[in-house]
From TrEMBL:
It is an enzyme of class 3 (hydrolase). The keyword Phosphoprotein does not apply. Belongs to the glucosamine/galactosamine-6-phosphate isomerase family. 6-phosphogluconolactonase subfamily. This is 6-phosphogluconolactonase. It comes from Deinococcus psychrotolerans. Pfam families: Glucosamine_iso (PF01182). Pathway: Carbohydrate degradation; pentose phosphate pathway; D-ribulose 5-phosphate from D-glucose 6-phosphate (oxidative stage): step 2/3. GO terms for molecular function: 6-phosphogluconolactonase activity. Its EC number is 3.1.1.31. Keywords: Hydrolase. It comes from the Bacteria. The gene is pgl.
Length: 233
């Protein structure tokens, strides 16, 4: 499948993260104005860390925000590899959120049961799912060649042999049911996959994300056609 959706390109990872943070604040304000709450799923990765730092200085209606996670490693909440832990130390500890507004995946539990329990607590529809993309084209914890690529439902336990572990992850059904999907992708290592997607080559899991907004830096977009607009220029 080809690279689909809206593409925004910024000079640096920091500029990309700042733009995504400002869009997050606007999306939260709009959702609260329309529906009284903002339900957003966060992801792991280096670019979200930069976005978390930027969000701490923006006006966000935090009392009406509910935080979820699109995937999680099978580790406890204090483990540095935990997506929840990354969000906690980078953002959640700095903003006025109550414990009941933060809904973490319990990676320390049996993955299948934790996935089923998480699916049960999700809202009917998420406003926004934030995603990254790995060098192999995976997104959330939906890796190439894994069973999770074709599973339905909302949240699954996905065995990832290339990582030697299980992960808890949203399905593509859940990701694509959200009102919006954003992919935050930075760094030169991501450029080959993006270029192949643009040409309609390769079979990468990320291509199953429907109509996303891509937040790219120039390094990730280096092999894309030069006529694409650079939003941060």
């Amino acid at each position: 499948m080809k690279l689909q959706g809206e593409i925004q390109i910024y000079p640096t990872p920091q500029a990309t993260a700042q733009a995504a943070a400002e869009a997050f604040a606007r999306a939260a304000q709009e959702a609260v104005g329309r529906r009284g709450a903002f339900h957003v799923a966060l992801s792991g990765g280096s670019t979200p860390k930069l976005m978390y730092a930027a969000l701490r200085g923006l006006e966000v209606p935090w009392p009406q925000v509910h935080i979820y996670f699109s995937d999680e490693r099978t580790v406890g909440p204090q483990d540095p590899q935990s997506n929840y832990h990354t969000a906690k130390v980078g953002l959640l500890d700095f903003v006025p959120l109550l414990a009941g507004q933060i809904h973490r995946m319990e990676g320390e539990r049996d993955p299948a049961q934790a996935a089923a329990d998480y699916a049960a607590l999700l809202p009917a529809q998420l406003d926004l799912v934030l995603l990254g993309m790995g060098d192999d084209g995976h997104t959330a914890s939906l890796f190439p060649g894994t069973a999770g690529l074709s599973l339905g439902g909302r949240v699954i336990a996905n065995q990832v042999p290339q990582q030697g572990t299980w992960r808890i992850s949203f399905t593509f059904s859940e990701i694509n049911a959200a009102r919006e999907r954003w992919l935050l992708v930075t760094g030169a290592a991501k450029a080959p996959v993006l270029a192949q997607l643009r040409r309609g080559e390769g079979e990468y899991p990320v291509s199953q994300v429907s109509d996303p907004v891509w937040y790219l830096d120039e390094a990730a977009a280096a092999d894309l056609p030069s006529n694409l607009d650079s939003a941060g220029s």
